[in-house]
Amino acid sequence: MASLNKVMLIGRLGRDPEIRYSQQGLAVVNFSIATSEYWTDKNTGDRQEKTEWHNIVVFGRQAETCEKYLSKGREVYIEGKLQTTSYEKDGQTHYPTKIVVTNFQFLGGKQDAQGGGGGYQGGGGNQQADSGSNNQFQGTTSPGMTGGQEPIPDDDIPF
Q1: pTM higher than the cut 0.70
Q2: Residue 39 in contact with residue 48, Cβ under 8 Å?
């Protein structure tokens, strides 16, 4: 039977990305984003809001890009997969769920947290400047990719 583990979110960072490096030198960035939904209460007519917080982890060169360009309040599009781990603390077992990023895109402008202009889109090894007025770049990570090798250009494929 087939299965799918995919998450797509658009939200704002709740804190600045925190970078650290594994013993092998792989960059790992953690941050959280908030997503909100809005509706009008049928009984009172008041506008309601519900906010969910999501823990995000990014690996490799994309992690370094996130750490460099993202900050608290910035809007970002995240694609990834859910991953649950477990740990013991004070005799209790905890099961935190994180979103491991496979693709992301910076949204809004560089000064988006303050309501300003042009934008960046997140990226790892495939950074390209966009000739449009948004000055954007974008990146993806293949499942299981942990940095290191660049993708093989189509010109180098022998078939």
Answers
A1: no
A2: yes
